[in-house]
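Co-fold these.
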Amino acid sequence: MKKFTLSATVAVSLAFFAGTASAQVTDALVVDGTAISTSAPASDWLDIDQVLSGWSFRTVETRALQTDDFDNPGMIFVDQAIDDWNTADGTEGKSCASCHTNGPEEFAGLRAELPRWDEEQGMLMNMEDYINLSRVEHMGAEPWKWAKPRMNAMVALLSLQSRGMEINVAIDGPVADTWEQGREIYYTRVGQLDMSCANCHEDNYGNMIRADHLSQGQINGFPTYRLKNAKLNSTQGRFSGCMKNIRAEPFAVGSEEFRALELYVASRGNGLSVESPSVRN
Amino acid sequence: MADNVKPRVRVPRSAAAGEAFEIKTLISHKMESGQRKDSDGNPIPRSIINHFSCDFNGENVIQAALEGAISTNPYIQFEASIEESGTFTFTWQDDDGSEYTDSKDITVG
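Predicted complex below.
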């Protein structure tokens, strides 16, 4: 009787310990047989030593969903984007496939560098910008709205082509000023709760905020399928959500501020691998 | 026909005769339960996949009646075993009368 009670207590306390140990995991992420690193040394201008993918902060079940392209719910939307890829749209009667004859695979490597300065366009370009550029100028089609399902799905399809590649976002040259602007936004407290991005994602990653296990807020896995809303979420859509969480008036999706912030946040993840489409909370 | 409804199925390409293997099925569907209301307060009518069935070489393997509590993108997974090579066919029926199908071949060996 006494022995039974003792082992029950031990079992309970062990379980309790495991539950409160909210440290991030260091398992390797293996997607359909291919290993993807989920940590890397941080850039020297960062105040942290190691950059960690959001994957390592999630529960066992959530992490497992990303290891199999069938189980990964984000791939449903990639399938939908493949349909869009092959469907003609706009005055020119063209589909993406009409010009990009080698398929979405042509875009391997692009996601790993975005956002980036495009000399020809004379501006900082995001995946959404490139998609709409082709839609409007080459297909004669209406531009898609950012952070909406159709655009998110196409961004996911094109980002998938860089999965496993190292994030390498330039922060100097023509984007240097924008990067500085983004950095300032990251560290500026806003909203009724008077918090900055850094307060959670730099000062408190690994801790719990209510029931949420805080990550470093890296965007290497975006667009991400969130279990919370059962759909793909874009980076700037998430920025907007975060700002609303701290009861601030969010910047507009596609605005100069969010573009600058996205450039800065993307660069914080330099060294991590593209995981799109990832699965998160 | 609901928008963007796409089935996906995973069946092993081959299996030993009589040995059980896993079949995974997924269909992207909003599965509007009928319990939600829109911003004006009007109920949004139910519109779901209400039936799933799987046949092998014409013989029924499994059938499932789905109700409103099944969430978006229904995922159904089951085990099956076969004695001969053939084709699995999967059928999903929608409240609005549409039917979605997929099929996968499998060899015994």
